[in-house]
């Protein structure tokens, strides 16, 4: 079953050019949204998708529905270094009363795809989750993103960046991305996680 899931993920849609929605999409806004701070939402037969214009979006992002794709505008398609969209929050697990609740982005739906986003919990202290995945289904796909617990432009001397990625349950695929943290910063309970072509940057003692 797992191999079938990853086969489906690998065959999924390639990176979008970010100048127009994918072919066949039913657009629910004008493409002028991509030059503003408002998201542009459109539908295909299977997915509801949203594009985010360049900028920093502060606050919790909870994805509770299934079959959602979120694309960030990029300056180059070659690398996550071309990402121009940051989803950020600053909250510790202690204050939120759980690792999941502290997440800047929380995935509670299945068949979710995130493209070219910087996801940051900027607190810079112990146990502050950037991305939390909690749905026990199939097919979370993440491509071309930067995932950081602490400031995005952090230096290697910062040693308090725990719990960056909470891959708690479900099947998850991460490609051509960057993850940074310190001390068990990729963790979870029963998830199956496939990471390929990505950078895992350990700060401090790891």
Automatic annotation (TrEMBL):
<dbReference type="InterPro" id="IPR012334">
    <property type="entry name" value="Pectin_lyas_fold"/>
</dbReference>
<protein>
    <submittedName>
        <fullName>Uncharacterized protein</fullName>
    </submittedName>
</protein>
<keyword id="KW-0732">Signal</keyword>
<dbReference type="GO" id="GO:0030599">
    <property type="term" value="F:pectinesterase activity"/>
</dbReference>
<dbReference type="InterPro" id="IPR011050">
    <property type="entry name" value="Pectin_lyase_fold/virulence"/>
</dbReference>
<dbReference type="GO" id="GO:0045490">
    <property type="term" value="P:pectin catabolic process"/>
</dbReference>
<feature type="signal peptide">
    <location>
        <begin position="1"/>
        <end position="19"/>
    </location>
</feature>
